[in-house]
Each structure stands twice: as C-alpha cells, then as structure tokens.
Design a protein that fits this description.
The protein is 19% helix and 40% strand. It has helices at residues 18-32, 151-161, 248-251, 261-264, 345-355, 361-375, 388-394, 399-412, 479-482, 509-521; strands spanning 42-49, 52-64, 67-80, 83-96, 101-110, 114-121, 127-133, 136-142, 168-175, 180-196, 199-210, 218-223, 229-236, 239-246, 266-267, 281-287, 301-307, 310-315, 417-429, 432-446, 449-453, 465-470, 487-494. It is built from ten helices and 23 strands. The chain has 529 residues and is α+β, with helices and mostly antiparallel strands. Helix 5 packs across helix 8 (399-412), helix 6 (361-375) runs antiparallel to helix 8 (399-412) and helix 7 (388-394) crosses helix 8. It has a 14-stranded antiparallel β-sheet with strand order 8-7-6-5-4-3-2-1-14-13-12-11-10-9. Strands 15, 19, 20, 21 and 22 form a five-stranded antiparallel β-sheet that branches. A four-stranded antiparallel β-sheet has the order 17-18-16-23, with no helix packed on it. InterPro entries: Papain-like_cys_pep_sf, Transglutaminase-like. This is Transglutaminase domain-containing protein. Pfam families: Transglut_core.
C-alpha cells in the first residue's frame, strides 16, 4: 500500500493553523519550482488569493567577482478565525555565471517558530550545511543532488530549451529550506498577452508539473525572453494563488483580510452523535477537479476507488488482511529528526517518568496519551510549528504540537511512531456546524498493526479520516494538502447501516465485529485511545 509522507500540517481539532502552513509551503515550494524569480536585478510582485492581496514578493540579483547572488523574500498575511498570521520567508543562492551551485540559505518563521539554513560548497565539492532550528544549532555535510539547479541555473536552463510551443523538458530544482529536490516537467504552451498591474506584456506561457502529482501541483507561469517570471498561478485548496510583477508601491500596498480557514473545512452530510463515533463508519468521499486520490490506506482505514473521483472510506477496524496488511516501520518511524527530538535526554527522561512500570507498548502508549492530553494545557494560536522540545518546555500548542511531542516520547522508548495528517469531525467550529476540520494524531506500531492515538482530543474515534502519514517534518508537502478545498464528504453512516449496500471492496460482515474487537479491546490493542 502506498504511504504518502507529506508534511503533518494540521492544527487542534479547531484546525486553526493548517491553511496558513499550507499556504507557506505552497508558495515557498512554488518559488523554488519556477524558473528564477530572482533573475531580474530588482523584481517586485504582488501576491493575491482569488484577486485579494495577501502579500508581497521581492527578488534581487547581483553579479560580483564572477558569482551570481540572488535573494528572495516573501511576506504573507493571512487570517484564521479573525486572528492574523504574518509569514516571512527568505531564500538566497550563490552560483557561478554558468549556474553552478556554490551556496544557499533559507530563513522562515511565523510569529514564534523559525528556522535558518545556510550552506557553502567546499573545495571537495561537498556542501557544509549549518542549521538553526528553534535555537538548536547543527552542522552537517551533504552531497549536491545530481542535476539540481538553483535560480540562476533554472533561468539559464529555461532559456536554453527555448519557447517553441509543445517543447517539453525536465528540470530538477533544489529547495533550500528542506534541502530536497523537486522534479518538474515543463511544457511550453506558447506566447500570450498577459495582464499585469502595470499593463499588458507579451510573455512565454509555461506549464510546470511536479512529477507524480498530476494537476494537483500544476503551476501556470509566464516568463520573458530572459526566463524571468512575470506572473504565476497555482491552486491552493479552494483558492487560486496569483503572483504578478509590478512596481514597489503596488507590491507594498496594504493587504486585505482573507480568512482561508473555511476553505479547509469539509461539511458533514449529517450530525454524527458521540455514540456513533466509536463504531465502524463508512464514508463516501468525492474529490473534485480531477485530482489524484488524497486518501491513504492504513490498518484502520480502507479506501476503495468507486470511479469518477468518488471513494468509499471504511474506518474503525483493521482490514481483513490480518497483521502485516500495511507495511511495517521504516527508519523514519524510529529515528529522531529536528522536529521530533526523540534522542535527547529531556525527552527520554520525560517518557520514562510517564510510562512508569507499564508492561507493554500498548500500555505505554495509553499512558503517554493520557498524560499529554492534560500536559499541553494551553491551546496556542501563535505557535508556528513547535518542535517536541519546544512543546515540552512551553506546554503550549495545538494538535500538531501534541503529535510531534507524542511521537518523540514514543520513539524514545523504542516504539515506532508516525504522525498522521487528516480530518476530524466537529459539531461546531468557527461559526460552522457539523464540519470536518484539519487535524493531526499519531500511529504506533503495535503487534503488527499501526494503531492510532490522539492526545489532543483525548480519544481516537472513527471520525478521523487519514490523508497522509509522515515523520513529523513540517516541510513534507504533497498533493493531499492542495486537495483540502476539493474534498467533499457525501455520505457518513455507521458501517452496519451500509451492510446491505453492494459496492466494490465491501469487507465481509462476519469479519467486521471480530476485527473491531481485536483492534479496540484485545490485550494487544489500545483500548480507549
């Protein structure tokens, strides 16, 4: 079964920070997955969501001593439940005049929570990478990914391929903040007159698709003869994000209030009373806009493709594949990382204190869940994306902080644990009734199954719809995040009510109750999670 590992992007059952994180991830990745915004000497762009101004972008380019220095800064202002969130991201690159990478840097932050990365190429060709994340500094070495390009190299490659309609080529673009490579397929559409704030310009229209994403990560880009981006359009949930070149006064004009939280909500077709949330549930989910399937199979969630962008989702029991139905843990599910610092003495000491004399991993996970439900005692909207150590010290955050701290504590005890991003049902949120909102929780590998635990809500139930799994790194971002505005729950019913419906992939009724009992109530299961 395919395991998507995007960024765990979600907020508390209130889900307040998800769209902001998604917006930043989309735009930051977008800057790196487009040819050389910074190829101009001084470029300003206005950033809009469906025609409403939400930010500005500024890029500079300087040539010194045979090196091309580029700098890009992005500032976004978005609202979530009338609470403004200001996001600042800065990217830098040093290259030769022929586009050979020599160094890069990245700095990002939203209120609290920020990270800095800088790297320089050594004489042996390796890059020394210095990182500062939440006050912790690390130094490492990396080999440059073969064929990966920074902004000047991207611009030169774009120009070299020309602008003949129908031309198609691949680009490998390097993203400094994650130190990862995106593989793009670029197609030349043709020349068009394009409306910009300063008037019309005749530009070359390019389509860029991230490999494997279909149209979920399709960017429409217009560049001039020098390969300099003048306008770009890309999807963001239910919105269209638009960057257009203009003068400094236009780019720095006041931003408008745009609340993107509602775009991340999914209406429920009916009320789901508390008693129904603890029995197996069947959902019919539609995904509009010809997007790839954003749902994932887990040991508690079976997804059946019904065709036409419709999916049947059964939740609440292990599928009739038996143990091993889903792949077991990977290195990422057991290792520490800059956000899930499971190897630190503080995390290990806290975990041992919490679990005490627990005799099994299932019992240890239950004790960790119960403790964290009350330990993180302040739901904070101003925490950017707190790491496990940050959350351990501050006791503040929402479900994302719950998840990364939970994962760190469990991994420190040797329990493979991953972070799940998805949706969860709320009776009322943000003035809306009966909605599914973005959420995060964890899954632990217990007796051959991935079993869910939710310390933010205090219990895992069958209104948790999984979209992706990851290791706790916030930069893991793929199609599931951009699909949020396209997901619709058409039906929701206890599985028993669906037993007489003949649809592909229906699990055998005689196995459902047995599997449910085994998952929730057997000694090897988790009990109340």
């Amino acid at each position: 079964m395919t395991r998507r590992r995007p960024m765990p992007f979600i907020g508390h059952p209130d889900g307040v920070r998800v769209p902001v994180r998604i917006a930043r991830a989309v735009v930051v990745g977008w800057l790196c997955l487009a040819p050389a915004y910074a190829a101009a000497q001084d470029l300003w762009m206005t950033v809009m969501l469906d025609g409403q101004k939400v930010g500005r972008f500024h890029a500079t380019r300087d040539v010194q001593n045979g090196q091309v220095l580029t700098a890009q800064t992005l500032d976004l202002r978005l609202n979530r439940v009338k609470t403004p969130m200001v996001i600042h991201t800065a990217l830098g690159a040093t290259e030769s005049t022929t586009g050979v990478p020599l160094g890069f840097s990245s700095q990002s932050g939203e209120v609290s929570g920020s990270g800095q990365v800088s790297a320089q190429r050594r004489d042996d060709g390796a890059f020394q990478v210095d990182r500062i994340l939440h006050g912790q500094a690390t130094v490492g070495l990396m080999a440059w990914p073969e064929g990966a390009l920074l902004p000047e190299g991207q611009r030169l490659a774009t120009v070299s391929h020309g602008f003949k309609p129908g031309t198609s080529y691949a680009l490998r673009v390097f993203e400094p903040s994650r130190q990862q490579v995106g593989n793009l397929r670029v197609t030349v559409v043709g020349d068009e007159w394009v409306d910009l704030p300063g008037g019309k310009e005749r530009l070359h229209h390019l389509q860029q698709r991230l490999d494997g994403s279909g149209d979920a990560q399709l960017t429409e880009t217009w560049v001039d003869d020098e390969g300099i981006v003048r306008r770009s359009l890309a999807p963001l949930m239910a919105f269209r994000i638009d960057m257009a070149a203009c003068d400094a006064s236009c780019a720095n004009a006041p931003d408008q209030d745009v609340d993107i939280l509602r775009a991340a909500m999914v209406a429920s077709p009916r009320e789901l009373p508390g008693a129904q949330r603890t029995v197996p549930m069947r959902y019919t989910v539609s995904v509009r806009g010809q997007r790839p399937n954003p749902l994932v199979n887990t040991d508690e969630q079976r997804v059946t493709d019904l065709g036409g962008g419709n999916y049947q989702v059964d939740i609440g029991f292990a599928p009739d594949l038996g143990p091993g139905g889903e792949p077991g843990p990977t290195i990422e599910d057991t290792a520490a990382n800059p956000w899930v610092q499971s190897s630190t003495p503080e995390i290990r000491a806290m975990a041992l204190k919490i679990v005490g004399d627990a005799k099994s991993d299932a019992q240890r996970m239950r004790r960790l869940r119960s403790y964290l439900t009350y330990y993180i005692n302040k739901t904070a909207l101003d925490v950017g994306y707190g790491s496990a150590l940050d959350t351990l010290a501050s006791r503040r955050g929402d479900c994302t902080e719950h998840a990364v701290l939970f994962a760190a504590l469990a991994r420190s005890l040797g329990i493979p644990t991953r972070v799940v991003s998805g949706l969860v049902y709320n009776d009322r949120f943000g003035g809306a009734n009966r909605v599914f909102v973005p959420h995060a929780w964890v899954q632990a590998w217990l007796d051959g199954y991935w079993v869910s635990f939710d310390s933010a809500q205090g219990i895992f139930d069958t209104t948790h719809i999984a979209l992706a799994v990851g290791d706790g790194d916030p930069w893991r971002f793929f199609a599931s995040t951009t699909a949020l505005g396209s997901i619709h729950v058409e039906r929701a019913e206890p599985l028993e009510a669906a037993m007489n419906v003949t649809l592909p992939g229906v699990l055998r009724p005689d196995l459902v109750r047995k599997a449910l009992d085994a998952l929730f109530w057997s000694p090897g299961g988790s009990g109340t999670r």
